[in-house]
């Protein structure tokens, strides 16, 4: 008899909520209107503190996607976490994360956004350190400290918005003053830290220390896209702002993660770097004043990346918790459904026609070509797209490798509950892009390109396939120069070291010297050891007199007689 658990019950509830919200988003999109709900909590002079909710097609459809992915992840976790000692705590943390994400999505008010924003940071920290070991603790500390920088940006922007007398972003979208640039930079700081753009990229691969369902929900489709979603809501502020430097940073993030994933052998880190690459793509097209395209890619990317992580979790389980892709072999015969889902989601990530990722990715590439941006942006974007295909096909070739590279005695299995959750996400990874394209772009702009430019993205995809296959066949030449080259790219241009050791190393050295010289040197000798030495000296004198009583008496006797004779 099938036993219902809290995981299955909450999965069913979230699935129903997802369908209801998607239905409401279609109604709001068709009727082209939005609903505001304001609750005034406090009034200080002319500045009102309000809890605000916005109900429009964008918030509804994003919430629907979050609930759908959460539902499938909870169903998957019913089996994945079945032997975990703190299984119910994991469920509560996931539900708290979903609540925080929903609060962030539905808030058009910086004060109410902060509730969900801080909740995301705190709960994600708890999920990263879920496995209690030093690696998880270090990853969690890096994650929360990096995200606190963005939280500071939100807090400072809240204080800066006292200039308006209100924290609604709707009321000041068309206002432009010279001092608005500070407000924009604070928001960009918050968005860049949450979405892990350069120079804040190091926390996302480190956060892969969390359980795989957490990586699927939090670090691929919801938390990391919160920064992009925040800037989508504030997109009108960028109309009078030159975003060239920010676009450059986004493209460099995409390029860095793409080339780093080709030198990586950790399965989850490869998928994390691919997430980082797609976040750079979303952020770049958003900062080029195309927010709907960024939102479209955000939604399509969420489903196939969540599916990719769920498949990776099943593979890791069957490989005795080994995440090294070099141990993957003969998996297509042992886990045909999982590897099929894995390959289809990887192809959707590449932008293969006519999967879900193709509709958003190809549209972004064509908009880059059509809108007249400079050659630098054009070159790095298409190079990064080629790198995406390279590491995806490298991963596919390792998974389809027919040689047995695992342990001699090893059992493989596929669970029906896990397969069902992957099947739903597989359906959305294939069909959601085309369906959403017909829904969102009612009045689509006309894109006119020559045949050569139209085929350029397909050419880079095919080129990436061949180079990825050659990268799989190529055995690394481990001479000294190649090792340095490989380390530089696989360690994300040494950003993790810059984010941790290089920041505090000089201060640590100075403080260590001060401790040796002052606390353990002069201060120790002058204050603590000096008193101890004086007391010890007096004790030694007294003890000397006590231990030499006969000698002292004889000396005193002769001294007294001598004095009498004199």
From TrEMBL:
Residue ranges crossing the lipid bilayer per the database entry: 6-29, 61-78, 90-107, 113-131, 143-163, 169-192, 244-263, 294-316, 337-355, 375-397, 417-441, 447-470, 482-504, 510-527, 548-565
Keywords: Electron transport, Membrane, Mitochondrion, Mitochondrion inner membrane, NAD, Respiratory chain, Translocase, Transmembrane, Transmembrane helix, Transport, Ubiquinone
Record keyword Transferase present: no
Main location: mitochondrion
Recorded GO CC terms: mitochondrial inner membrane
Superkingdom to which the source organism belongs: Eukaryota
Subcellular location per the Swiss-Prot or TrEMBL entry: Mitochondrion inner membrane
Domain NADH:quinone oxidoreductase/Mrp antiporter transmembrane: 107-381
EC number in record: 7.1.1.2
Major enzyme class: translocase
GO annotation, biological process: ATP synthesis coupled electron transport; electron transport coupled proton transport
Presence of keyword DNA repair: no
Membrane topology listed for this record: Multi-pass membrane protein
Swiss-Prot/TrEMBL catalytic activity: a ubiquinone + NADH + 5 H(+)(in) = a ubiquinol + NAD(+) + 4 H(+)(out)
InterPro entries cross-referenced by the UniProt entry: NADH_DH_su5_C, ND/Mrp_TM, NU5C-like
GO molecular function: NADH dehydrogenase (ubiquinone) activity; NADH dehydrogenase activity
Domain NADH dehydrogenase subunit 5 C-terminal per the UniProt entry, residue ranges: 391-566
Function: Core subunit of the mitochondrial membrane respiratory chain NADH dehydrogenase (Complex I) that is believed to belong to the minimal assembly required for catalysis. Complex I functions in the transfer of electrons from NADH to the respiratory chain. The immediate electron acceptor for the enzyme is believed to be ubiquinone.
Name listed for the protein in its UniProt record: NADH-ubiquinone oxidoreductase chain 5
Organism: Stenopirates sp. HL-2011
């Amino acid at each position: 008899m099938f036993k219902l658990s809290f995981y299955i019950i909450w999965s069913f509830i979230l699935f129903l909520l997802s369908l209801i919200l998607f239905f409401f988003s279609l109604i709001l999109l068709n009727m082209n209107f939005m609903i505001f709900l304001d609750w005034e909590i406090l009034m200080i002079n002319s500045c009102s503190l309000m809890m605000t909710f916005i109900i429009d097609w964008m918030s509804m459809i994003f919430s629907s996607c979050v609930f759908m992915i959460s539902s499938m992840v909870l169903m998957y976790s019913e089996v994945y976490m079945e032997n975990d000692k703190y299984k119910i705590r994991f469920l509560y943390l996931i539900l708290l994360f979903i609540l925080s994400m929903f609060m962030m999505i539905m808030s058009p008010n910086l004060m109410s956004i902060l509730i969900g924003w801080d909740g995301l940071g705190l709960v994600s920290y708890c999920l990263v350190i879920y496995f209690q070991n030093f690696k998880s603790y270090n990853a969690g500390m890096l994650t929360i400290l990096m995200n606190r920088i963005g939280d500071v940006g939100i807090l400072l922007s809240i204080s800066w918005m006292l200039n308006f007398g209100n924290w609604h972003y709707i009321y000041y979208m068309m206002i432009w003053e010279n001092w608005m640039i500070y407000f924009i930079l604070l928001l960009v700081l918050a968005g860049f830290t949450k979405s892990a753009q350069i120079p804040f990229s190091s926390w996302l691969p480190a956060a892969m220390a969390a359980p795989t369902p957490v990586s699927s929900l939090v670090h691929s489709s919801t938390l990391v896209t919160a920064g992009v979603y925040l800037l989508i809501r504030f997109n009108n502020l960028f109309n009078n702002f030159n975003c060239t430097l920010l676009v450059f940073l986004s493209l460099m993030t995409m390029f860095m993660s793409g080339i780093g994933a080709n030198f990586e052998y950790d399965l989850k880190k490869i998928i994390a770097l691919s997430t980082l690459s797609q976040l750079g793509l979303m952020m770049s097209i958003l900062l080029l004043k195309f927010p709907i395209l960024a939102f479209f890619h955000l939604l399509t990317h969420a489903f196939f990346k969540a599916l990719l992580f769920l498949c990776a979790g099943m593979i890791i389980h069957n490989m005795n918790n080994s995440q090294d892709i070099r141990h993957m072999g003969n998996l297509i015969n042992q886990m045909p459904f999982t590897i099929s889902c894995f390959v289809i989601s990887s192809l959707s990530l590449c932008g293969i026609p006519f999967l879900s990722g193709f509709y958003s990715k190809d549209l972004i590439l064509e908009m880059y070509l059509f809108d007249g941006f400079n050659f630098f942006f054009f070159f790095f974007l298409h190079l990064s797209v080629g790198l995406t295909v390279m590491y995806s096909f490298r991963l596919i070739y390792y998974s389809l490798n027919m040689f047995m590279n695992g342990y001699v005695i090893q059992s493989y299995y596929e669970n029906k509950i896990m397969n069902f959750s992957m099947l739903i996400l597989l359906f959305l990874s294939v069909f959601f892009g085309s369906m959403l394209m017909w829904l969102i772009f009612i009045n689509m702009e006309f894109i006119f390109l020559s045949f050569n430019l139209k085929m350029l993205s397909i050419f880079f995809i095919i080129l990436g396939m061949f180079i990825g296959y050659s990268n799989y066949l190529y055995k690394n030449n481990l001479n000294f120069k190649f090792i340095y080259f490989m380390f530089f790219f696989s360690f994300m241009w040494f950003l993790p070291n810059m984010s941790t050791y290089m920041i505090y190393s000089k201060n640590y050295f100075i403080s260590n010297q001060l401790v040796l010289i002052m606390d353990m040197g002069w201060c120790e000798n002058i204050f603590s050891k000096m008193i101890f030495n004086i007391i010890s000296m007096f004790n030694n004198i007294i003890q000397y007199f006590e231990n030499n009583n006969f000698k002292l008496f004889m000396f005193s006797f002769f001294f007294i007689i001598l004095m009498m004779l004199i």
